[in-house]
Amino acid sequence: MTQTKGINPKTREVIKLLVLSALVISLSYCGWATLKLAWSTEHPILVVVSGSMIPTLNVGDIIFIKGVTPKEINVGTIMVFHSPKDYDTLIVHRVVEKIDKGGVTYFKTKGDYNRYIDSWEVPESHIVGVFTGRIPYVGVIVMRLREPAGTTFIIILIVILIVYEVYNSGVKRKPPTGETRVRHHRHHHHLELRCFMDFNRGAPG
Q: Which residues constitute the domain of residue 121?
């Protein structure tokens, strides 16, 4: 009779975590694709990284963008567009003038904090969309995570979580004695209480 060796329990836990992570990432991409389709723009959510629109928009604000036609954009509208000087750079400024040249619409723009109007004229082909709302300052976290140190932190955190889950699953598979079970139970709740107290102590009051 041929015997087969099953997958190591710890290996199985790692596989489950990797599959779950892949599923979460896939769902995130699906959600992002849905947003782009629903709001008719390639960039439905952006983070403000400069202060040219203070006080209307601040550095670190998460802003929501909706795709529109040039006819829907008027003087006073806050719009996001590709910089005429560097197409890969996205800018969010306010429209101060709308110009028609041979059937093509151009826009003059200005940052609310800036003293002068931008030197360029933005063609309608450079428009990403118009500003529809924001979440103040939350984007600062995103900005930090984009940095090399932030990426390293995420990788280390994922590794720690995987190791913890694997170790924890191994501990659960060892049936404790009655006395040990009671001690483990007490220690577990003491740890939860201590973490809860530390969390509240650190929170502003």
A: 45-139
